[in-house]
Request: fold
Amino acid sequence: MSHPNSNDYSAFLQDTIRVTGRLALSLGVRYDMQTFNSKDLANNPLWPASGKMPSDKNNFSPRAGFAYSIGNQRPLVVRGGFGVFYTRLPQLYESAVINNNGLTGTFLFLDNADTTQHQIFPTYPNAMVNCRPGPVVCTPPDSLKPYVTSDVSAFAPNFITPKVQQGSFSIERELGERFAAGVSYLYVHGENLIRARDVNLPPPTTYSYPIYDSTGATFTNSYYTVDSFATWQTQQSFSCPYPPCLNDVARPVPQVAAINQFDSAATSIYHGMTVSLRRRMTSGLYFRLAYTFAHAIDDGQDALVAGRPVTVQNTYSTKSERGPSVTDQRHRLSVSWIAEPRPFGRGQEVLSKIFNEWKIAGVMTFGSGRPTDARVTGDPNRDDNSSNDRLSGVGRNGFLSPDYATTDLRLTRKVHVTERLRIELTAESFNLFNRDNQKYSLTQDGFLNSAGQFVPLDRKPIGQQLPYPAYYQRPTNFMKATSAYAPRLVQLGLRFLF
Reply:
């Protein structure tokens, strides 16, 4: 348990200048600083950067914007702006530095597929370790001590605060009575974004492994290559009765396991253009249509997954991390409307009570598929991390998930019971047309869990199995949707207003 403690200091200065009757400028500057309490931080002599939080005190971010109108009758309005924005470090990172210092906390991870580890697995219902309840130290038995490890989480010595450059430009004009159209462009460039790497790994070696079908029995006459952090053992030994075998990773600092270093090295860029048409509310009708074409690229930022295994596949080369962002969506169309018909007026009290006071609102959304990663289980690169292995030869987020479309509708009716009491009846339907919006089974990091499996051999190769210490097993449902978003949902509501 940790108690992260940080303070934020900010100052902001802005002024709007009316240059002419048609041009206005907004100028501003902001300063941000975040400090951390060092009370619970502990330095591990094995890694000098541990137990330290970054200190960046020169985070000045200027901003500027303008608005300009052209013409008198239904003028063309042009707006634009640009600014720099510094982000604050989530306290989850401070908590990771406090908890994972390699001194106080230890972890036990066993792989049932490993022959040597399989021998110490308990047999149900026997417990592996008997620990007393309560906040006490539980000492593992001697048979488990070789598998007990500790991780270190630390910021890179040259870490600086992440920042985002954001610019926008838009043109809007009223076309007719209550109708307006516009075109806007948005640019977002992230710099010095947080990305974690396991820096306690030796230089990798490239190996090739055969690919088998979903049964693991038929060789497909093809291979995958992988940069592995563990070497092959070609001599027979007790731990390797049938060579070649996969060795354990030889870490440069053997006293600890992973050293997850938080670098301010990732970047991202977003370009988006939106074309919109809207009708302001008049005569009981509002309408808006917007289409966005966008593209988002990054090279492996993982600011939302602190405390989990790093997602960088090769700590020595991060070039392969560059690809479409998990949030990248090329096409998005949205149509929304609100209708409040009042067909009957004065002198038609009976009809107005029946047909007036209704409100109909709806939203139709279509979005193209978003990128997804092809993950392989089994730790092919042998870095003791099962969360960062992608299918060989496929870039990060190299596949596209199915598109998504839905229509939501809301019907509301107000009933005046007395002068002070009203009843509002509501009927809502989500995914009105019950579209089958298929999806892949994704993890929080955007990984797909059914792209393949890496199987280390724990037996003598037989049949067509080639003399390799492991093989890839290709699933039958490779990159196929395995689930779906919610079907049609209808709900009714009743509200009293008094």
